[in-house]
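ok here's the first one, seq then struct tokens
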Amino acid sequence: MSRYLSAPEIASISTLLSAPRLGTYLAITRSNTSEDAIELHQATMSLGIAIMAVTGLIEVSLRNAVCHELDNALQINGWLRNPPRSLKWSALEVYAIKKAEQQARRAIYSKMTNAEKVALDALAFPNGVPAGIKHRKLAEKRQASINPVSDGQIIAHLTMHFWKRLFSENYEQTLWKRALKKLFPNKTLTRAMIASHLEAIYEVRNRLAHHEPVYGSRLEAILESIDFMIRNFGSVKPSAETPLAKLILPQRDILSGQVAIFKATFDRLT
């Protein structure tokens, strides 16, 4: 695409992307020209979108499968916010759950009509709304009064960081051996192996969320971890025919195409 840009267009696009952002790509292009840096940037963005689509489905599948297994293993309602004595969340998980609950309340509030929002004042301000209260404080107090907020609404706002943490060494006894190893029934797989692949997926998703390029060893690592999850999630032996593999087949086909395009572009320009 960038091969057909005029000099004024290249200058304008360079401004749109910003010098620091484009500089990342200028530094790795062989020609060190803005034209090639823009082309590499665009190939990287297309690749990132494809990776996010595949890993997003992996995250959703992991989240729902984890919740299903913990429902069965813990046998109590509300284990997320009120875990049994046998399960103690670390400070990181406690914070993540509280943050997700706040986000869930904010999401509920954003969908309310103005009349519904005003109706919350009776709960948020039993002695009346203070005069001169700032809009942000008013909204926060109203949101805090929203009740109930279901576990499902909170779970929807928990990130990949939370779910990959459940496979950490901290929860080897309380979660892995008790429930989560059922998600990876192949007995040759260890918790540490799975945690390593989930970490790779998390790190790349985090980089892409900040619009940072993924290439070289990072690209190979994320492709390996995607393949690992597809072949081993819910399967007693590695298979290309797992339910997860079939679920993400269209997105993975797109990813394969974008990987080929990106690698060809990268090899040509760097």
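and now the second one, same deal
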Amino acid sequence: MSYTTFNQTANNALLEPMFLGNSVNVARYDQQRYMAFEKLIEKQLSFFWRPEEIDVSKDRADWQSLTDSEKHIFISNLKYQTLLDSMAARSVNAVLLPLVSLPEVETWVETWAFSETIHSRSYTHILRNLFSDPSEVFDDIMVNPAILKRASSIAKYFDAVIITTQLLQSQGPGSYEVDGNTIEVSERKLKERLFLAICSVNALEAIRFYVSFACSFAFAE
């Protein structure tokens, strides 16, 4: 198993597993093993939007009416959301694409990742409306220990898949020392870590983001 952007071995995608089979060669959609992904892609594309389409002019007046404590909560939450969506857009591609074996899953992953970049861009749109120069807000993200701790607790599962994939594809099964840690590498271990990473994505979206959105929506109450 070795990832390549151009798999020159002819194969029948209808017989491939979702992950850990032959790399995708032709992105064809005339025949698909899992039509559910086609529906997801179509649905996601129908949601396309640009942050600049959203009128946030009223937000500036609302912002000015907040107390200092409320401003701190609102901006801290935005910082957290910005980092999580930055990480989500990047990790979806980095974790899943080297392992995908089906065209419809590959396209869904790329569509999903692109949608996450729109989300991350939306935070810049919001902050530009509140600050003439939002750089101070962005610069604080990577030096804020609370934000980094919450993001790292999710990112570690993504990174485990990435390093296991790289070692398995380049070196093969075995035990390796990486940054002072011993990592057991095998296809079984990769499957386990991939499962945990997918669960982490769900936790990221269904728990971490919902909590942060609840905080944001509370300001409208």
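notes on #2: The helical segments are 35-46, 57-64, 68-96, 103-130, 135-141, 145-170, 187-218. The chain has seven helices and two strands.
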